[in-house]
Each structure stands twice: as C-alpha cells, then as structure tokens.
Amino acid sequence: MITLAHISDIHLSPMPEVGFRDLLGKRLTGFLNWKLKRHGEMNTETLARLVAHMQDQQADFTAVTGDLTNLALDSEVERAGRWLRELGGADKTVVCPGNHDAYVPGALEYAQSEWGDYLKGETVEGQAFPFVRRVGEVAIISCSSAVPTAPFFAIGRFEEKQAARLSRILKLLGDAGYFRVVLIHHPPNAELQHPSFGLKGHRIFRRVITEEGAELVLHGHTHRSSIHHIPGKNHEVPVIGVAAASAAQGGTLDDPARYNLFRIEKSGEEWRCTMREYGFQRLGADIVMRMQMRIY
C-alpha cells in the first residue's frame, strides 16, 4: 500500500518587508489585496498545526499543488524552499507550481532554481513539465498551469505542447500498469472555470485525460474542498481539490485549512483507493477527519 498526502495553497505568511521597487506592476494590486483581505484569512499557526498533523500520518509521499508564495518575491521563494525542506525530503515530496509562484515574469524560473529537486523528475523531450515521480506502482505526474498574468487575473494556461507530452506520459505509464496521479494547480473541470481565474486550455487537458485515462487528478487554487469527474479512457477520473493549507477558521473567503490522504493498493488486477480529508471545521479547535470515501 502507498499513502499519498495532498496539500495546496500554502501562501506562506507573514508577508516579508516590501520595498517600493518590489511593488511595480501586478505586485502592487497583489500587495493591496493581501493587506485588505488575505492577511487576516491566512496564518502561520493554522499552517503549522495542519502540517504537523499531516506529518504524523507518515505518508509515503506528499504532493504540493502550488501557491507556496504570495507575490513571488525572491525572499518569499527562498523562504518557501526552507519550508519545503522542513516538510520532507525531495525524494518524498513533489511540487507543481501555482499562479502565485509565477506572479511576474522570471519568478517561476527563480523558484525552479531555488526549489531544485522538488520541481524535477523524469521528463520527455527534455522539457520541465510534465515530470514524473514514481513511488512503487504509483506515478505522480506534475503539470504546470502557472504563468504570469495581468493585474486582477489569476488564470492558468495549459497548451498543446504540454498536452502532447502529458498524453505520451499517461500512455507509457498506463501500459506499464501504474496508478497515475496527475497534479495541476488550476482546476481543469468545466464546473469551476471563470474568465478571471480559470484554466485556459481546460478542454485540452480534459481531452488528454479522456483519451489516455488516469486514476486521479489533484488540484488547488480554489481554496475549497471539491470533487468532480472527467470522462476517462476506461472509467471516470476523479478530480479532487483541497482547501488552502493556511486558511484560518472564521474566514469569509475560503474553507478552513485541510489536507487529503489517499491510501492506494492493488488487489489482483484492480486498484483500490480510499481518501480521507483531515482539517479544521468552521467551529471547534481540533483537526478532525471530516470525510472518508472509497474512490476505487
């Protein structure tokens, strides 16, 4: 049996000191949004408690689906690298980047250099994404929807070239009998699209999943727990989102902080997978198991 933990939208706080030059362009609107809304909704104590609870589960592998930073300042990216090392070794932890990690041009490239092996794996055609990390018979495939955008937009992009590589990877791993888990920051299902924060290319992504299949798609971005499906090659593919890991109780914008734990095993030729959601309720101080469901 392999256990896989999924956490997302870390939004490390507090915000570091910000200089005037740091706030040119989009970062100004992001900084104002943080000060006016988000700084009271995200906090380090909530994140620390959730991560400690997750680490007690001793999962075999942990997937982080992006938004470790807020404005992708160099100091934030460096702090996120230290946080990742505290979370777990790069051999047992993988990241797919979020829009806040690519907030301005050049930010994602700096994150790739700072986060190193957390953003690396087996690739095709020598391209950074998608990349694959294998844990026993489970293959985690990290895609990227993270691109710089204009102020007031938080969209992601998934284009044909990455789709072609993902298709090839899914076929190779499917033929080899792996349980395929696809990571992407922005939700790819049609139900959660929006002109200002949706995924451009969501139809392309779903087409690949429909043609080649997968066993799970995990995402963040919405700051809410959710379960949807995409038609797959042999069965419907669950698309599961998780609430932001630093979202405080009592917030008006998001679900309280949560993580998901998947238990994956093979019985004969069939896969079995159960999901448990752990996190805070809107009332009460404890982290609890909010839900358990069998996926396969």
Low-confidence stretches: none
Assign the CATH topology.
Answer: Purple Acid Phosphatase, chain A, domain 2
Helix coverage percent: 25-40%
Total beta-strand segments: 14
Q: Output the CATH homologous superfamily.
A: Metallo-dependent phosphatases
Q: Give the H and E element order.
A: EHHEHEHEEEHEEHEEEEEE
Q: So what's the overall shape?
A: globular
The biggest sheet amounts to: 6 strands, mixed
Output the CATH class name. Answer: Alpha Beta
Topology record:
Blueprint: E1 2-7, H1 26-36, H2 44-56, E2 61-64, H3 74-87, E3 93-95, H4 107-115, E4 131-135, E5 138-142, E6 156-157, H5 160-175, E7 179-183, E8 199-200, H6 202-212, E9 216-219, E10 226-230, E11 237-241, E12 258-267, E13 270-280, E14 287-294
Parallel strand pairs: 1-2, 2-3, 5-7, 6-8, 7-9, 9-11
Antiparallel strand pairs: 1-12, 4-5, 10-11, 12-13, 13-14
What keyword list fits this structure?
single chain; 296 residues; alpha/beta; 6-stranded mixed sheet; 25% helix
Give an account of the 3D structure.
The protein has 296 residues and is α/β, with parallel strands linked by helices. It has one domain (2-294): Purple Acid Phosphatase, chain A, domain 2 (4-Layer Sandwich). Helix content is 25%, strand content 25%. The chain is built from six helices and 14 strands. It has helices at residues 26-36, 44-56, 74-87, 107-115, 160-175, 202-212; strands spanning 2-7, 61-64, 93-95, 131-135, 138-142, 156-157, 179-183, 199-200, 216-219, 226-230, 237-241, 258-267, 270-280, 287-294. The strands form three sheets. A six-stranded mixed beta sheet has the order 3-2-1-12-13-14. A six-stranded mixed beta sheet has the order 4-5-7-9-11-10. Strand 13 and strand 14 (287-294) form a beta hairpin. Helix 3 runs parallel beside helix 4 and helix 5 packs parallel to helix 6 (202-212). The chain is globular and about 60 Å long. The model has no long low-confidence stretch (mean pLDDT 92).
